[in-house]
Amino acid sequence: MALKGLLRRRTRTLLTVGGIAIGVAAIVSLGALADGFIAGYSAIVGGSGADLLVVQKDALDIVLSAVDEDLGAVLTGFADVRETSEMIYTFAATDGVPYFIVYGYDPDGFAIQHFKIIAGEPLSRHSGRRGGKPLLLGQTAANDLGKSVGDTFRLYDSTYRIVGIYETGQPFEDGAAVILLEDAQTISGKPRQVNAFFLKVREGSDIDRLSQRIEQRFPDLTVTRSADFVQQQEMLQYVYVFTWSVSLIAILIGGIGVMNTMLMSVFERTREFGVLRALGWRPYRVLGLVLAESLALSGLGGLLGALLGVVGVRAIERVPAISSVMPAALSAPLFAQGFGVALALGLVGGALPAWRAARLLPVEALRAEGGSDHAWPVPWATLRNVLRQPIRTLLTMAGIGIAIMAIVVLQAMGDGMVKAISDMAGSGGAHLVGSEADASIDLSKIDVDVVRRIAALPGVRMAEGFLTGYTTVGELPFFIVFGYQINGLAIRSYRIVEGEPLTANRQIILGRVAARNLGKGVGQTLRLFNSSFRIVGIYETGVPFQDGGGVVSLRDAQALFGQPRQVSFLGVWLEDPQQADAVLEEVAARFPQVALARASAFAENVGDIQVMRASTWAIAGMALLVGGLGVTNTMMMGVFERTREIGVLRALGWRKRRVVGMIVRESLALSAVGGVVGMASGVIFGLLLNLNPLLGGWMHVEYRLPHFAQALGTALLLGALGGAYPAWRASRLQPVEALRYE
Fold it and tell me: Is 449 exposed, middle or buried (0-12, 13-18, 19+ CB in 10 A)?
């Protein structure tokens, strides 16, 4: 009986099922990517056969950890340690893949042994040197990139020779490459540094006691069991938060669609429920019927969404740029989670309609006209028609509003990040700004000798490098450290409002936001990793990205993050700004490893920003698709309810195009109001984000007029597309048939 009720309005049912399916597909596909990424992190340690992992204390992520290579011999000297092995884990750019995972191992260490060679030969310091440095390529990466043994492989501007193809059974590793430890140290900018040490413990040893002894001797290190490694990586928690935040957008809109559909079903079947009540049906039985229909509707959407999620995952697996970094991991719990969310949507979305149906009194219900209109004293006919069913209209507007709010907030966050990076990069009024070509801004590294050589070019007045790094401090999970030349030009943009500027090493000046969040003031000390710094000043720049961090000398920053003679970015001051193009061409020709751009355009050219922009529109597109289904659903219901009215209008001489215009105008009005509500909600939500002290420490949501123009245009486009099919259907109604319609 529940399915029979749903099939009365097949179009409405299909549209609602589609909305739920997209939400569930987002849960399945994004959840699979998140689980694959986290499983990959587990494989970094688990596959090696190590008992313990040693990394830098307070490092935000293992990729940012820097441990002195010489500590390997000391760790091996512990009586309970049977064997040690080093590892570098980093990202590099290769052809068509901006973020390609690269591991660095000692070919004689135990950790590399789980990379089983299926073609070619194992990694060796003597193999492949004639055609480039030796490299092992995972089977998945080899298939995706069309590579085989003997081919060359580019990592940044270095050429490697593929000497072997390996397989581990872990997608995270099989989509990556393995090179010699010393080559990986060069790529990651960590000479004589490693990201982690793997330890094998002698049989019968007390692992916890050994961990304590190592940490007592080396306070700047953290020792964890291999099985506990994933729980120690805070960045992985952000991955889960992101995936659920994105899925929540589609889930909310889908839930609104379920409620909308079930409410309309109750309105249309008021007299039917009255008959059932008159025949002896108790309220709880009516309630159960409506909830059963709602659960059936959501269940169908959950099944379709699970299928779409699998299709989406398989499509993502064909994109090397994504699959190599975030391989998908589909699992039964993930499908159960998605289906459970769908059923929860059915319960929540059907609760109000079911309660309303159960409260109907038989006599009143039998007198009611299903789907009766409400007359609203609105002067415009278009709005008056839209408001005939106010609850349906409000729910549809809410769905559109959530989609538009997502667009506004995501764009504002993106522009806030662009502004923060631009302001940071252009510190001190630099005309040109550069970073490592093809590198993520978090992993960018430029040799200081390159900076000096650029400073000597004709037309260049000054060139300076500065370094950025990340750590955790106290209760702050994310703290940015900037390293500048104490007497340089770039540091002058940090306006001291309390205390004094940097004058020596082992000093730090804190941003106003960071000082407030940490509860620190001038004269106190701040511990970064295992080093103490005296706070000599508090600064303000007006840039959240900078005001939420701290500034130390360049030398101290290089020591903290294990990057001697390296900088993250460089600023170039010109003798004459009109010579910018000539200098850019000269740098591009002589230093291809540096990506230099005008300060105003630097952030937009960064690969990370471009990826973020693409992700923003992918999320917005998903929300708009669900919202568009809601608009189509609502307008289709409006056409069904007004079939006889449209027949009268056609009989009175209305042309088809006039009927189309009426329905499209109503759809546009519905979307426009929803869009305005969404923009207002987006502004309020963004202001609340700006008030968050942790978020305000690294980004400020920036609103610009084009955001609102674009959002409103998108809402109107949504209305036009959502109303197109209902309008076409209304125009095809024949007067005689429409007048007979019940």
Answer: exposed
Long-range contacts of 657-660 (CB under 8 A, 24+ apart): 657/731, 659/727, 659/730, 659/731, 659/733, 660/727, 660/728, 660/730, 660/731
Task: Give percent of the chain with pLDDT exceeding 90.
Answer: 23
Q: What confidence category does residue 454 fall into, taking pLDDT thresholds of 50, 70 and 90?
A: very high
Q: How confident is the model at residue 2 (pLDDT cuts 50, 70, 90)?
A: very low
Instruction: Tell which residue, 721, 699, 623, has the closest CA to residue 408.
Output: 623
Residues 6+ apart with CB under 8 A from 462: 455, 489, 572, 573
Say if strands 177-180 and 97-105 run parallel, antiparallel, or are unpaired: parallel
Find the range with the poorest average confidence among 557-566, 591-600, 619-628: 619-628
Beta carbons of 411 and 686 less than 8 angstroms apart? no
Instruction: Say what the pLDDT of residue 373 is.
Output: 46
**And the tokens for 267?**
């309105």
Nearest to 119 by CA among 106, 138, 141, 104: 138
Q: What pLDDT digit, counting tens, does each position of 609-623 carry?
A: 767 777 777 777 777
Q: By C-alpha distance, which of 326, 356, 257, 288 is closest to 20?
A: 257
pTM: 0.74
Q: For residue range 386-415, what is the model confidence (pLDDT) as tens digits?
A: 556 677 777 777 778 888 888 888 888 877
CA–CA distance, 274 with 493 (Å, rounded to integer): 74
Are 572 and 595 contacting, i.e. CB atoms less than 8 angstroms apart?
no
Secondary element (H or E) of residue 705: helix 705-731
How far apart are alpha carbons 78 and 82 in whole angstroms? 8
pLDDT at 243 over 80: no
As a whole number, mean pLDDT of residues 465-483 equals 85
Instruction: Give CA–CA dist 135/122, Å, rounded.
Output: 9
DSSP 580-616: HHHHHHHHHHH-TTEEEEETTTHHHH-HHHHHHHHHH
Cα separation, 238 vs 270, whole angstroms: 47
Residue type, 359: R
pLDDT for the residue numbered 704: 82
Instruction: Name the residue with tokens 């659960």.
Output: 295
d(Cα 306, Cα 332) in Å, to the nearest integer?
A: 11
Please state, in angstroms and rounded to a whole number, the distance separating the CA atoms of residues 227 and 47: 11
Do residues 537 and 495 lie in contact, with contact meaning Cβ atoms separated by under 8 Å? no
Contact 204, 210 (CB under 8 A): no
Q: Are 508 and 515 in contact (CB under 8 A)?
A: no
Closest Cα partner for 423 from 294, 522, 511? Answer: 511
